[in-house]
Amino acid sequence: MTTTNKQVAERIMVALDYAYAEQAEALVSALQGIPCYMKVGMQLFYSAGPQFVARLKEKGYQVFLDLKMHDIPNTVKGGAESITRMGVDMFNVHAAGGKTMMEAAMEGVDKGLQAGGLRPVVIGVTQLTSTSQAVMNDEIGIAGTVEEAVVRYASLAKSAGLNGVVASPLEVVRIKQACGAGFVTVTPGIRPAGADIGDQSRVMTPKEAFTQGTDFVVIGRPITEAANPREALESIIASVN
Fold it and tell me: Are 236 and 208 in contact (CB under 8 A)?
């Protein structure tokens, strides 16, 4: 793999959205040698647990544990402590939980950090990429545009000491303007050209998202449901270059 392709691969998070560890292991084996980030979400983590995360780390992968914690500050603090001890590279909390809750998460990280251990990147979830403005306004009850809500949450997350946010690629430029170029953006809602957008409302291609300045893109079904997942990922990497 060329240096350029490696650099792109390291910024692609493959969403291991499977019900069982065996399914995820098959995909990981198919992608062996491609240094992508692995994202473990609720379904897989609730099924396979910390042991699966440990196996990914043993294989040398960077791991984003996507559990979207949203609870009272003390509970989130305890969860962040446990996750930090697990040795993941990144995890997230809902920015909607408020500044005190996010600050508690960072306290949990400090408490769980082992001597010489890895300090995880902590990011806040702003608005899910499946959320349209109509849903946000009429069902969730937040006024204004999605972009305004996302930037407000991003600024709150930064003030609480978080390292970045999850947002759609459509909001990356505004987030970077408000929070600085070093504030990490992780962008789901990524679909290669011609792919089905599924249940996503705010999407871009991988190349478009990186052009917007995002740090990481999250891609699930276009890879995990492909007839040949390795070819699908390699094609995505090539499309970015």
Answer: no
Residue 121 — φ and ψ, nearest 5°?
-80, 130
> How far, in Å, CA of 56 to CA of 197, rounded?
28
Strand partners, 99: none
- 56: closest CA among 39, 43, 69, 68? 39
Residue range 194-237, pLDDT digits in tens: 555 554 445 689 999 999 999 999 999 999 999 999 999 999 99
216 touches 38 (CB < 8 A): no
**Residue 30 DSSP SS3:** helix
CA gap 61, 89 in Å, rounded: 9
34: nearest Cα among 198, 229, 239, 240: 229
Residue recorded with tokens 């970015």: 240
Contact (CB, 8 A) for 13 and 38: yes
Contact 187, 214 (CB under 8 A): yes
Average pLDDT value for residue range 172-177? 97
> Which residue carries 């403005």 as its tokens?
133
Give the position of tokens 């600085």. 180
Give the global pTM.
0.93
Per-residue pLDDT band at 64 (split at 50, 70, 90):
very high
Q: Which positions are annotated as active-site residues?
A: 68
When the pLDDT of each residue in the chain is averaged and rounded to a whole number, the result is 93
